Amino acid sequence: MENYSWQILVTQIIVIALLLLLIIYLIRQKRIIRLEKRFEKFALISVHDHEKSFFEEIGDRLWKGIHLLAKTLSRSAFLKKYATKYEKHIKYEDKDSISGMDYIAIKFLVGLAFVLFNILTFMFQVLEISLASIFITFFIGFFLPDIFIQIEYQKKRHRIEDDLLKAIIIMNNSFKSGRNIMQAVEIVKNELDGPISDEFKKIYLDMTYGLSIEVVFDRFYNRVKLDDAKYITSSLTLLNRTGGNIVKVFGTIERSFFDKKKLKQEMQSLTSASIFVFRILCFLPLVFILAIYILNPDYFAPIFMTGLGRMILVLIILLYALYILVIKKVLKVKF
User: pTM of this prediction?
Assistant: First the structure.
């Protein structure tokens, strides 16, 4: 029986290793294709003569399946409303090919993949599959893409926050040369790149549809959720309703943003040592635990094998998480 359990364990390790290798290979191939597309316009071979690779064909078929599933799911009014929260993550270039419902379809597919993997694991272990385990694995798989989406969203917000001063400088210079808001927005979207350019493209598109300045920039704030964007929205709304010298107002905004960025950089340089020590102190207990476990694997056995030990383990994890939250709160400086 013990030999049979070892065979199951080895089989599971091999399957997991193969899946990880396949994922790494697909990620590398995706990176190669992305680099190839970037340098394709500089190559001598015509774009029209380019043949799709095997992975591009798989990607196209996968997206067709995602679009088909999204079309089916869009019949639900609840899911359509739920999909609107993902609209802000769609790039301007992809607005005609990707919708918020496609994100829901991807979440469903990941959830089903987790359920399938769970069923295969139970089959390898010759165990009875429970409805609760299927629901839990689907729940984990369904919400797992949100973690990666949120990470990318936070990176995007940081880049927009860093580039917003550049956008304000360009807009202020445009106002000084006699251009209106729409022309200033057009110059920003053409001059800058990255997420800030993508957001100003959306702003320009909203303005071409005839939406008011208040609505356009309020939608911009709701997409990025930055206090600086709220400040710009409030200033433009006030100017549009009461009138005033837009050059003078944007000059004030520019100086305010510049001073804020300078202060933020100074604070980062002052708190960098404290943050470094905090990170070391966060990982040091884990390093000690790993070292002790390697030297003596049975040292932590009472914690996992006894009821009191499990209670102590839960208490330690809660205190450790509370420690991280409190220190992060203390080190965080709001501007």
Answer: 0.73
